[in-house]
Amino acid sequence: MIITELNSEILKNRTKKFAHQCVKYSLDLPSSVLGIHIKRQLTRCSTSVAANYRAACLSQSKRGFVSKLSIVIEESDECIFWLEFALDENLPNKNLDQLIKEAKELTSIFIASRKTIQKNLK
């Protein structure tokens, strides 16, 4: 997927929705040391995906966009890690499979977009 202006708006909304869903999921985690740790990490990285994608869209150059998009990729991959970790630890499973699927899809979209832009920069 090449990120166009229309796709950009769709992805802004999609990443924000994903962040909201991750925050809601993390609110259901237990108040154990592990539950609190995952809650904080997942909240931080999922909201970072949305915030940094918005920042990427405001980049003044394609190189700036690629740089910010790289941060988005790292954060979305970290979301996958924490969601899978919660699954491995048998923590609440409500919507967990769907959240993992969405995190993987977003990561794939951002990786493909970065590759396309980097190829066009050469």
UniProtKB/TrEMBL annotation:
Superkingdom field: Bacteria
Record-given protein name: Four helix bundle protein
Organism: Mesonia mobilis
